[in-house]
Write a structure and sequence with these properties.
Blueprint (H helix, E strand, L loop, with lengths): L3 E6 L6 H10 L3 E6 L10 E4 L19 H11 L4 E4 L1 H8 L6 E3 L7 E9 L15 E8 L3 E3 L2 H9 L3 E5 L10 E5 L5 E4 L17 H14 L1
Parallel strand pairs: 1-2, 1-3, 3-4, 4-11
Antiparallel strand pairs: 5-8, 6-7, 6-9, 9-10, 10-11
Length: about 220
C-alpha cells in the first residue's frame, strides 16, 4: 500500500493540492485533512502546507495552531509520526510548540517570491534522509514573514544537536544563521520556509523538491 500522507487544509491555505500532487507523483497517497476535524485518521504522516491559515490574523500560524486537528497532530508528533510544516505550516508548528524558534517579517520588510539555493546540513531527519550533506537544492520561497529567529541559546542548541536541516546559500530574508529549516530533537518534525512542492517537476523549473518528499516517504517505509 502506498504511504498515506495527510495534508491539512485551513481557511486560506493555498498549497494543499500542489503538495498532494507532489506526493502522488512520487508514488505516495496524498489526502486532504480538514482543520476542523478532531482526528487525522489513518495517515502515516502529516504535512501542514503553505498559504495564509485563517488569514494569518494576529500573526502567522497563531490561530491555526488552535484548530481542532492540531491536538491530534501534536499527539501524533509526540508519538513519533513524521510531521512536516512548509512555509505557513512551519509557522504553525512553531506556534504549536513542536519546533523551536519563531518566524518574523523579512529583513527589509519585503515579500519575496523567488527561487533560492539551499544547502542540506543534515540527513538525520524525516525530510532530508534521501539527500546528501552539502547537497545544494534549487527551491523557491514565497513569504513575507519567513525570517527565522531564536535566542542565542536556542541557536547554540540547534547547532549542537544537528537540528538545522537546511540553510540558505545567500540569505534572502535575514534568518539567523541562514536557517531555512529545522527539526525537533526527535528528528520526526521538520519545518522549512521554502516550497518543495513547487520544485517537483521540470515544468516548474526544478525537481529538487522531490528529494525532500522522497525522504518523507522513505521515512514512513522505515517506520512501518
Amino acid at each position: 500500500m502506498p504511504a498515506k500522507v495527510g495534508v491539512i487544509r485551513f481557511p486560506g491555505t493555498n498549497c494543499e493540492f500542489d503538495t498532494v500532487e507532489a506526493i502522488n507523483g512520487l508514488g505516495g497517497n496524498g489526502e486532504i485533512l480538514w482543520h476542523g476535524d478532531s482526528s487525522i485518521g489513518d495517515v502515516d504522516a502529516v504535512i501542514v502546507p503553505g498559504g495564509f491559515a485563517h488569514g494569518d490574523y494576529l500573526r502567522p500560524g497563531a490561530i491555526a495552531r488552535f484548530s481542532k486537528i492540531m491536538d491530534a497532530v501534536i499527539e501524533a508528533a509526540n508519538d513519533g509520526m513524521p510531521v512536516v510544516g512548509i512555509c505557513n505550516g512551519f509557522q504553525v508548528l512553531t506556534e504549536a510548540g513542536l519546533l523551536p524558534g519563531a518566524l518574523q517579517k523579512n529583513a527589509g520588510l519585503k515579500f519575496i517570491n523567488a527561487p533560492q539555493t539551499l544547502r542540506v546540513e543534515t540527513t538525520n531527519s524525516v525530510f532530508t534522509s534521501a539527500a546528501e550533506v552539502g547537497q545544494e537544492l534549487s527551491i523557491p520561497i514565497n513569504h513575507f514573514e519567513g525570517n527565522y529567529t531564536c535566542s542565542p541559546d536556542t541557536l547554540s542548541e540547534l547547532k549542537a544537536n544537528d537540528q538545522i536541516v537546511l540553510t540558505y546559500v545567500g540569505n534572502p530574508n535575514g534568518s539567523v544563521g541562514d536557517i531555512a529549516g529545522v527539526c525537533n530533537e526527535a528528528r520526526n518534525v521538520v519545518g522549512l520556509m521554502p516550497h518543495p512542492e513547487r520544485a517537483s517537476h521540470k515544468l516548474l523549473g526544478s525537481e529538487d523538491g522531490n528529494v525532500l518528499m522522497r525522504s518523507l516517504l522513505a521515512s514512513i517505509a522505515v517506520s512501518a
